[in-house]
Amino acid sequence: MRILITNDDGINAPGLKVLEAIAAEVAGEDGEIWVVAPAFEQSGVAHKISYTHPMMIAELGPRRFATEGSPADCVLAGLYDVMTDTKPDLVLSGVNRGNNAAENTLYSGTIGGAMEAALQGLPAIALSQYLGPLNFDEPLQFEAARAHGAATVRTLLERGHWDSADYRLFYNVNFPPLPADKVKGLRVGAQGYRRDASFGVEPHRSPSGRKFLWIKGGAQNIPTAPGTDAALNLDGYIAVTPMRADLTAHDRLDELKARLE
């Protein structure tokens, strides 16, 4: 199996090393792991692509490349520059430091990389590690993802639903904020929503008097509705959410047609 991996925390991020180990275990002895990751952190860029300017790509070692672009850029670089002889069998994005559950999903570069792979017609999985008081510090920070990542990916490959729709299905996986031995298992849940936890800005003045705004996130320990992604994570489960890039509100189409047409 040939696996392309990327992330949004950057080529030197510890979570990428965890993903490399996960991918190597899934691919097996005869497999190939190709890394195309951002040269520097790209958190919060969502599905951004560098459409209006070129990006540099550098080969750092065998099957290891860094680009000046976003995770979605990295996937495009992997498919159309690095791996032009044979496309990968699977694209993995992560392991992100911090959860990409609930509303975080919409901002996530980790999700953006997996989404681009799905739009290119490839099986794709995004993986993120929820952080909390029980695993915030090393060496426990990525322990749950490291211990359960390969089994989770294998389970999805073997028993998950994979289609060839125009907006192809991909998967968002979040590991709970726990040491590995405390993880209760795997559950499937919808994307949740944290009320009163949206992003905002915090103004600061520089020594020269100029005003700068820092983007500030909300509390991450707020559970979403029962059975949805963040709630499952906070209850100790690995949360798996099937996703598509199609943003249509299908539940409102018929009603809107009746009102407007």
Textual characterization of the structure:
The protein has 261 residues and is an alpha/beta fold. It has one domain: Survival protein SurE-like phosphatase/nucleotidase (Stationary-phase Survival Protein Sure Homolog, Chain: A). 28% of the residues lie in helices and 25% in strands. The chain contains 7 helices and 11 strands. The strands form 2 sheets. Strands 3-4-2-1-5-6-7-11-8 form a 9-stranded mixed beta sheet, sandwiched between helices. It has a two-stranded antiparallel ribbon with strand order 9-10. Helix 1 links the parallel strand 1 and strand 2. Helix 2 runs parallel beside helix 4. The chain starts with a strand and ends with a helix. The model has no long low-confidence stretch (mean pLDDT 97). Its cofactor is a divalent metal cation. It catalyses: a ribonucleoside 5'-phosphate + H2O = a ribonucleoside + phosphate. Its EC number is 3.1.3.5. One of its GO terms (molecular function) is nucleotide binding.
Helicity range of the residues?
A: 25-40%
Compute the gyration radius: what is it? 19 Å
Q: DSSP strand (E) fraction?
A: 15-25%
Report on the biggest sheet: 9 strands, mixed
Quaternary state of this entry equals single chain
Helix/sheet category? alpha/beta
Shape: globular
Assigned CATH superfamily = Survival protein SurE-like phosphatase/nucleotidase
Number of E strands: 11
Domain Survival protein SurE-like phosphatase/nucleotidase: 3-195
Cofactor: a divalent metal cation
Pfam families: SurE
Family: Belongs to the SurE nucleotidase family.
